[in-house]
Specification:
mainly alpha, about 70 residues
């Protein structure tokens, strides 16, 4: 009997969780399509900008280090 009660309580908890989740989702302020597209574009541009920036810094540091090591070795 204890086992069946635990199963029944588990199902009741799952149902309550789903009800609470649906209730909370109704309170969410969903972005409009325009807001979604504009913020997505900002993220894409930022990723490319920082990717290019990090590539440039890596390229510069790599060349400087190569130059320094060549000077030290000779």
């Amino acid at each position: 009997m204890e086992f069946l009660r635990k199963i029944k309580d588990s199902f009741r908890n799952i149902i309550e969780f789903v009800k609470d989740t649906r209730k909370e989702l109704n309170n969410v302020s969903w972005p409009t399509r325009r807001e979604l597209v504009s913020t997505t574009m900002v993220v894409i541009v930022a990723v490319f900008f920082f990717g290019f920036f990090l590539w440039a810094v890596d390229f510069l540091v790599s060349n400087v280090m190569d130059f320094v090591f060549k000077r030290i070795m000779h």
